[in-house]
Each structure stands twice: as structure tokens, then as C-alpha cells.
Amino acid sequence: MKTVLVVGREWKFRALLRAQLREEGYEALAFETLQDIEAEKVGAAALVFDTADFKPEEWQPQLTQLAAALPVLIVAGADESLHLPRARVLRRPIRLAEVVSALREIISARP
Description:
alpha/beta; 5 strands; globular
């Protein structure tokens, strides 16, 4: 079973996405911040990061490093400016099904 790390400050997003991923056959671990995942990132198939309630300087440096090691999917606001070429970005508003579909794509594309 592949593990997906779900990071975001909004508990509803984390809980709903985690439940949906489990229904789809993934092990999903939820965290409030990127600092919380340090021990868990080894062996993870992908990471989903929700930018809501974060300032870019709080996450961009660490997420840039993580994107070099594993596939990263970012859920961002419609007008947010992002500069992470290795990460896939979905813009709000989105449905959970879109997040799961994008995750499947980036996980299957990983060598």
C-alpha cells in the first residue's frame, strides 16, 4: 500500500482527503506542518500540500527540497504565485476527486 502525506492547516481538508485516499487504497498520513513530517517522508509515494493559512516563506524552501525527493502536489489559491517547477499545482476551487486523480498521475509517473 502506497503512503501519501497530507499537509495543511485546515483540519477539514486533511481529514476529508485522508478518508478519500484510504477509500482509494492508499495509506494516508495527515500533518499540520511540513516540519511534522520529517520522520515520515522516507518511503512515501507522494505529498499533498495545502497552502491555505501559510505564508510562502513558511513552506517554499522546505517544499522545494521535498519535491526533489518525492512527487509533490500543491493545492493553492486561485491567485497565488508559485515557483516550484518540480511540483504539480491544483488551484482552488477543487474537488477531492481531482486531487486523487492528480495524485494517481504523479505517483504512476514516478520512475
